[in-house]
């Protein structure tokens, strides 16, 4: 499946992304550590958000299929950059699963971290560490 996203430079380091199928938009800005003003998500922030939202979505689908309650689940994720070359070097995430799940259910949901398409698309040099809290 192909999805078109229109990308337009608005000036002053801002870019507008428009999702072709829906028309929904996102504005990005350069982060302060790269000479920007940090007024919105940076492109690498969106990369980070893509990983965490992909994982949580895959977990939700598995939970639904298994009849496991999933409301209230969340992920807090931190992105670390390297300077030379400037790129994402590491993601560290903390997964909060709903209470009352068995160890087997928790294990199955945590396996979704590596099963999501965004994670599978990452360069192997990017460190990805997730823990359940």
Overall SS class? alpha+beta
Helix content percent band:
25-40%
Averaged pLDDT: 95
Number of helices: 4
Q: Give start-end ranges of low-pLDDT stretches.
A: none
Q: Nearest-angstrom radius of gyration?
A: 17 Å
Element layout with pairings:
Elements: E1 5-11, E2 14-19, E3 25-28, H1 43-66, E4 74-83, E5 86-96, H2 103-110, H3 112-115, H4 117-121, E6 127-132
Parallel strand pairs: 5-6
Antiparallel strand pairs: 1-2, 2-3, 4-5
Helix pairs in contact: 1-2
Can you describe what's shown?
The protein is of the alpha+beta class. The protein contains four helices and six strands. The protein folds into two domains: 5-34, no CATH class; 43-132, K homology (KH) domain (GMP Synthetase, Chain A, domain 3, 2-Layer Sandwich). A hairpin with a 2-residue loop joins β4 and β5. α1 (43-66) packs antiparallel against α2. The radius of gyration is 17 Å and the shape is globular.
Question: What are the main properties of this structure?
Answer:
single chain, alpha+beta, GMP Synthetase, Chain A, domain 3, 2 domains, three-stranded antiparallel β-sheet, three-stranded mixed β-sheet
Quick structural summary:
With 133 residues, the chain is of the alpha+beta class. The protein contains four helices and six strands; from the N terminus they run βββαββαααβ.
């Amino acid at each position: 499946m192909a999805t078109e996203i229109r990308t337009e430079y608005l000036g002053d380091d801002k870019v507008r992304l428009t999702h072709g199928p829906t028309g929904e938009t996102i504005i990005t800005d350069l982060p302060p550590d790269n000479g920007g003003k940090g007024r919105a998500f940076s492109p690498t922030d969106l990369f980070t958000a893509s990983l965490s939202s992909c994982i949580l979505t895959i977990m939700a689908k598995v939970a639904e299929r298994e009849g496991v309650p999933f409301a209230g689940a969340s992920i807090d994720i931190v992105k670390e950059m390297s300077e030379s070359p400037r790129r994402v070097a590491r993601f560290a995430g903390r997964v909060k699963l709903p209470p009352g799940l068995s160890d087997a259910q928790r294990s199955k949901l945590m396996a979704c971290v590596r099963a999501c398409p965004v994670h599978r698309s990452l360069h192997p040099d990017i460190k990805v560490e997730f823990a359940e809290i």
